[in-house]
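Listing S7. Sequence submitted for prediction.
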Amino acid sequence: MTDSPAADLRERVLHALRTARVPHTPRSLPFPAHHQPGGDTGGFGWCALCARDADALADAVLAVLPAPADRTAEVEELRTELERRTLMLQASRDQVTRLTADRAAVLTDDERAMLTYALDQAQEHRSREGFTDEDQAAVDSLRRLTTEAPGGDR
């Protein structure tokens, strides 16, 4: 065994490739240096690596690979957590939007009086020099703030 799972798997695959025998290798072929007649299996044959037998190589590798993990439960758990966090984020965003709107809508009596005065001055200015449609829309929007009940009730 080695220190890392990847290195351990590499060693197991290499060992499997060197020790998986390919039966029916012709006896007339000379053995590579790392082979012994009979080897670990008691039969005569080259290893899958030296025999270049693709099927034997694939079988040897598959024999040492870990079984595929069923990750359905893990994926479902992550999906559920993502949905939960998405809902929390949406709720937080909605709360910030409400607080921002409420804060903008809540005026003290003094602020309301000052805004009313400023808007009245703006209307007088408009009557002398004219407003664009955008200017009038801004004044109308601000005027609504002065008529709303304290606390943002609409």
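Caption to Listing S7: primary sequence and predicted structure tokens for the chain studied. The chain has two domains: 5-64, 72-147. DSSP finds six helices and two strands in the chain.
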